[in-house]
Amino acid sequence: MKKKSLYMLTASEIARTVLEGVYSAQEITESFIVRTEKIEPFVSAWTARDNEYLRRQAAEIDAKTIKGPLAGVPVGIKDVFNDEVLPTQMGSPVWKGHRAGNDARCVAYIKWRGGLVAGKTDTAEFAVH
User: Fold this and answer.
1) Is residue 1 packed enough to be buried (19+ CB in 10 Å), middle (13-18) or exposed (0-12)?
2) Which residues on neighbouring strands pair with residue 78, listed in sequence order?
3) Predicted TM-score (pTM) of this structure
């Protein structure tokens, strides 16, 4: 059976392999970054990404002895939800570059359970329509 590329793993496969020590969150993250940089010019899904922020989160997961059920899973956050580091622009030029400095509750929960904020995904202005 052919071995899957890391970027082909499902979220549950990522979490399981990170929890079992098969792969580190950092290995998953590097695969994710390489794949994202390759396809993003064709997809245009992201409004904000910070690879160093993503790497820091992965290193924190790997350093923990207790990991949550989303351990090492990169997650795209819709640009209407705050993240403490990335800008929340709500798809609007009025909010370009705005940084809330805090996490929305759902984003905090993702991080608490071991998920990694991979970046902000595009949205209709103020998520209308």
Assistant:
1) exposed
2) 121
3) 0.92
